[in-house]
Amino acid sequence: MGKKIIIVGSRRRDTEDDFRLVFDMFKEHYQDGDQIISGGCPQGGDRFAEVIASRMGLTEENAGLLIHRPKKPNGPKWAFAKAFYERNTVVAKETEADSVVIACVALDRTGGTEDTIRKVRRHNKMNFRNLKLV
Predict the structure, then answer these.
(1) Taking the model in full, what pTM does it have?
(2) Domain limits at 38?
(3) At what angle do helices 112-123 and 77-92 cross, to 10 degrees?
(4) 89-103 pLDDT, tens per residue?
(5) Looking at the 3D structure of the chain, how many domains does it have?
(6) Contact by Cβ (8 Å): 81, 93
(7) Which of 6, 43, 91, 100 is in Cβ range 3.0-4.6 Å of 130 for a Cys bridge?
């Protein structure tokens, strides 16, 4: 198995232009045997990850794609937010020394993508060289 390419991004960045930026960055780093990691959101970077995986023939069945979908709790709105932030932690912990993280960030740099970036940096002792922001 090759390296992990983690693709995350704001739901507010869900245009075709955003997709092309992420896909171009992906193509710069992808090598046969690499695995795509996604957070399973139906918009933004997570959606891009699944579209890219499909185009590349990478699936969960052939271990080319790993999706960490958030657990959907019953209850108040804050419980949903908590589940999504917990999912961000799981995604961030996927990073290894040779991983590449492609983050399609919101223009105001707020939200779950920023939470994931912070957790990636913390998980990698604040020295993650392969974090690519688009």
Answers:
(1) 0.90
(2) 4-133
(3) 40
(4) 999 999 998 899 999
(5) 1
(6) no
(7) 100
